[in-house]
Structures are given as structure tokens and as C-alpha cells.
Amino acid sequence: MNVAVFSAKSYDKQFLSAANAGQHELTFFEERLHRETASLASGFAAVCVFVNDELDAETLQILAANGIKLVALRCTGFNNVDLNAAAQLGIKVVRVVSYSPYSVAEHAVGLILMLNRKLYKAYNRVREDNFSLEGLVGFDLHGRTVGVIGTGKIGLIFAQIMSGFGCYLLGYDAYPNDRFETIANARYAELPELLANSDIISLHCPLTPETEYMINAEAIAQMKPGVMLINTSRGKLLDTRAAIDGIKAGKVGYLGIDVYEEEDDLFFRDLSSTIIQDETFQLLQSFPNVVITAHQAYFTADALEDISETTIASLTEFEQGRPLSNEIAAKQPATAK
């Protein structure tokens, strides 16, 4: 089967080609898929896309007109796809239901350690032969309270790791996980209690209409002064302007994000020779207590192998006319990455 792979980087080519092992004819495009680039899919049976490709109704109509019958998401989240439009056009949509949850959970912990112990500052100082410890004071994680918003596979592993540091854990989830409260010093709480009592708050939940901007000015106002916020899930869970206001007011003491609400025009590209026009992002970068990574939390060899193998398996199921194990129903709620 001929498949157009969009937003393709060198690592996508490497891992997808290895998993494919010659089963399908994969053509890789560096371009993101959106209405202006959808015509590139002409002559293909399927497209393979990533988190920042835009599959709105207009793009899907162009794909359908060009003979596309399958959209294969090489990610878990699917809030970038108009599922109802796809269903009406007869286009099947599949995703990667799960991949190594350790990748994202461990990255969230890495952001915490980076911010707390000022590792980014210490690294740069030593490279400049500056061995002063001024301004590098951190705090013991042991005994601190960590709020975990979203206790699915990733949130659960994150909680287990933080429990290993000796933290107390407060969890919040619309669909509680029985395993969460089996972790030492972990219990569920209502969201206001979690916000008010957590020293660190980490987001591990999907982006849905209910969770969009759940961390807004009102939520931040309920938090402890100097709270650490971590987001490795979806950019629009966090109102960036509200976070900036919180940083300026001293309410937000640390911010670590791997996702950004307007990341589509920034992440996964080298913009080092350009002037970034996003003033909010530029302001965010200017704060010394903010660490930003470019949607790399999932980026381990283990996760890339899982993603590629699942994606190729879905393509094969479709080609052979078998039931699609990872098909997304039109009205199914979106999930985190």
C-alpha cells in the first residue's frame, strides 16, 4: 500500500522503515499536512501524520477527493482530527493507543529536577569556568506534596517515581485509577484541595473541551505561592498568559513545559536563524525560572519503536481488510499523547 508520511524527520524515516520491513511503500514528506499541502497525498491510499498536522474538515475533503481512505496517526492524541468529517467522508482513522509511558513520565521528572536544582544554570556556569553556587539553591523533593492531574498510564508511572523520592501525592482524575492509591503516600483529592496543597503540580491528562485551559488564572490563584507547574501533555491545558502573570506575581515559582498551546508553527523545526514572531513565547523564554523543551517527552528509542510498530500494523490491517484494532470512533473523547 502506498502511504504518504507527513511531518517526517530523519528519526521517523529510520524507525518507520525498520518496522515496515518492505511491507508498504512509504513516501516521506517533511511538510506538515494541512489544507495547503493536502494535494501532496494525491495517488496514495493512506496518510501517516503526527500531532501538529491539521486534519480539519477542509483538509479531509481534499484528502478524500485524492483517494485517501485511511489516516494513521503515529501518536496517541487525536484532537487535531475532525473525526465526524472523516466519518462522513468514509475515511478511517487509527492511532497509537499506547507506547512507552515511561518516556513521558521520566521526562516530567527531568523537568522537575532541572528547575529545582537549576541544572541548566549550573551546566552553563561550569562551561564558562564559573564555579560559584550563588543562586543555585534548590529544595529537597523528599517530604514535598506533588499534585498529579491525570492518573492514567503516564500519570501513574510519574506518581510511582515521585513516591520513590519520598513525596506525598495528591491525585485528581475524572476516572480514578484503582492502582493510584496503592502507591505509598498517595490519595485522591478534589481539584481545589490539590491546587491549594501541592508544591509541584504535573499535568498528565487529555485535551478535551472540559480540560482546555484547566490551569487558568482562577486555578493559579488557588495554588501555593512559588508552586512548580509541569506540563508534558497538551499545550492548551495551560493558559500561557495566566502562567506568565503568575510568574510575574511570584505565584508560579517554576514552570516546566514540553508542550505549548501555539507550538504548531514552532516545534519540530530549526528556527535558529529566524525571528520568532510569537511574542508570548518569547516572553516566556525570557524568565529564568522557566524551562521549555520542544515536545520531546515521548522521544526515546523505546517509544519510537512502539509507535512505528503499531502504525505499520494498522496499515497492514487496513490493506488486508481486517478489523482495525486501533480505530478511533467519531465521538470518542481525545486522549493524551
Summarize the structure in words.
This protein is of the alpha/beta class and 337 residues long. It has two domains: 2-99 and 301-319, NAD(P)-binding Rossmann-like Domain (Rossmann fold), CATH 3.40.50; 101-292, 3-Layer(aba) Sandwich (Rossmann fold), CATH 3.40.50. 33% of the residues lie in helices and 15% in strands. It is built from eleven helices and twelve strands. It has a seven-stranded parallel β-sheet, sandwiched between helices. Strand 4 (70-73), helix 3 (83-88) and strand 5 form a beta-alpha-beta unit. Helix 1 crosses helix 11 (301-319). Mean pLDDT is 95; it is low at 332-337.
List keywords for this structure.
five-stranded parallel sheet, alpha/beta, disordered C terminus, 33% helix, Rossmann fold, seven-stranded parallel sheet
Give the helix/strand layout:
Blueprint: E1 2-5, H1 10-20, E2 25-28, E3 46-49, H2 57-65, E4 70-73, H3 83-88, E5 92-94, H4 101-116, H5 119-127, E6 145-149, H6 153-164, E7 168-172, E8 186-188, H7 191-197, E9 200-203, H8 217-221, E10 227-231, H9 240-249, E11 252-257, H10 279-286, E12 290-292, H11 301-319
Parallel strand pairs: 1-2, 1-3, 3-4, 4-5, 6-7, 6-9, 7-8, 9-10, 10-11, 11-12
